[in-house]
Amino acid sequence: MAVTTTTRPAAGPTARQVRGWLRRSRRRHHTGSLGDTLTDIYVVVLFVGMYGWFAVSGLRGQLGSTPPARVDTADRYWIAVALALAGAGLVWRAVRVFGPLLVTPAAQAWVVSAPLDRRSWLLPRFGWLVLGASAGAGLIGAAAAFTGGSDSAVELGWAALAGVACGATGVSASVVAQAARREPRWARLVGTGLVAAGILVSLLVVLGHLAGFSIPRPPVSSTVLVGLLASPVAVLVTARAQRALGAVDRASLTAGAQYADAAAHAAVLLDPSTLAALVEGRRWRSIGRVRSRRFRPGGRFAVLVQADLRRTFRHPSAVAVWAALLLATYAVAVAVPSIEAAAFVILAYLATNRLAGGLRTVSRSPGLRRALGGHETVLNLAHVVVPAVGAVVWYFAALPGVRPGVGLIDLLLLPGVVAATCWGATRPPLRHDGVVVVTPFTMIPVDLMRQVLRGPDLVAVLVIVQWLLG
Question: Is the pLDDT of residue 350 over 90?
Fold first, then answer.
């Protein structure tokens, strides 16, 4: 009689055991001391607090310096609400691009691919993520309330509570969407809906200001209302996200790693082109397919202009952002008229730069220039037409929000904005072997900063000219 015995497979290590082993391994290979770590934390907190306080106090002083006769407090309130809605929508889209849960390449190969309890492994990471997002959003909420003129500790506390609740809700909801097998439709609509709501509120305020009436402020403080409504939602969504951690698969954990690496390289090397190229490729892949049409008869120059025009209108957001910046000019004139002149020049540059994607692509791709053929000057001039025409239309559409008529200064500002856009779009690849100035605080890469600021440096000159002659 044959006897069969079954042996159970050996149980693998738990997520807690793996984390402990990794901590011990890092300690053995870590050369820095606790004092070095505390010093780094102190420097980061000092710089963030110092520059953050300067920014908040400067904005508060700028808002308070506007004469009451030039601004309606209700209009300023609703513009702030619109800014908060649009900012929340953009942050949601950025968080969805990065994950928000992601792992390093080493963890992808050795931990995520192993038979390990995924929920137990991701739970501490999720906790730190929610804690950091809540603290950051709460700090931003309190800073925004203080910038708006609030001095009461109660009002600042409600603003901080609203920020904490919104931060926890946003991160937890994005984790719930990341755990889904397919991207849920509501996750795509949240970012678009928040941005659209911000634009709609700004449009209503601007139209009402031009028509001579303003939307009254609500009887209840918005921070109190958001804090009361969002707090229980944050608790429920966070609990739901905690239960959904086990469903987060490897593909979703690794999807945002390349964006995180590109963002880290862009911050360290001061070269945003890597991250911009990655995001641009994602946008074009989101289109899927387009309807092909023949170009109208013409020479090389005319066909290149037609191709750049079609590229602009096929871009997922180029024209939309161009129009939103036009609305932003009038919103600044309504809410903060003391900076409308400087904001007008900066927004004109951003709007023109949004249409210069073809010029950037041609200038930074030698292979594409060789494939198109012809002289490089002709290629560049053909791709300047669309941003130049867009700059003219945008400039004269936004000009009534700054001053009633056209002056001699506009003959300098408008060509200057186009020149700044072309100057920045035709920037050669960055070189990191330039001059570095050693100061008592740190080393300053002067030559690298000169290359990075190519384009915005000319805009700064135009802003000074606007202040002196406007």
Answer: yes
Which position has the token pair 């700028």? 62
Tell me if residue 159 falls in helix, strand or coil.
helix
Enter the tokens of residue 308: 């750049």
> Residue 73 carries which side chain, given as an amino acid letter?
T
Q: How would residue 278 be classed by pLDDT, with cut points 50, 70 and 90? A: confident
Question: What pairs with residue 443 in β-bridges?
Answer: 438
Contact residues for 309 (Cβ-Cβ < 8 A; gap 6+): 386
Ordered DSSP codes for 236-285: HHHHHHHHGGGG--HHHHHHTHHHHHHHHHHHHHT-THHHHHHHHHHHHH
Q: How far apart are CA 103 and CA 122, in angstroms?
A: 10
State yes or no: cis peptide before 100, omega within 30 of 0: yes
Alpha carbon distance 348, 398 (integer Å): 9
Q: Which amino acid is at 37?
A: T
Q: Which DSSP symbol is given to 437?
A: E
The pLDDT tens digits for 140-196 are 988 888 887 777 888 888 889 999 999 999 999 999 988 888 888 888 899 889 999
First-to-last alpha carbon distance for the chain, in angstroms, is 104
Mean pLDDT of the chain: 83
In angstroms, rounded to a whole number, what is the distance separating the alpha carbons of residues 55 and 335?
Answer: 18
Q: CB neighbours of 1 closer than 8 A, spacing ≥ 6?
A: none
Residue 401, helix vs strand vs coil: helix
329 contacts 344 by C-beta, under 8 angstroms: yes
Q: Which residues contact 241 (CB under 8 A, 6 or more apart)?
A: 126, 171, 172, 173, 175, 176, 179
Could you write out the DSSP letters of every residue in 18-36?
Answer: HHHHHHHHHHHH----HHH
The closest alpha carbon to 141, from 40, 150, 351, belongs to: 150
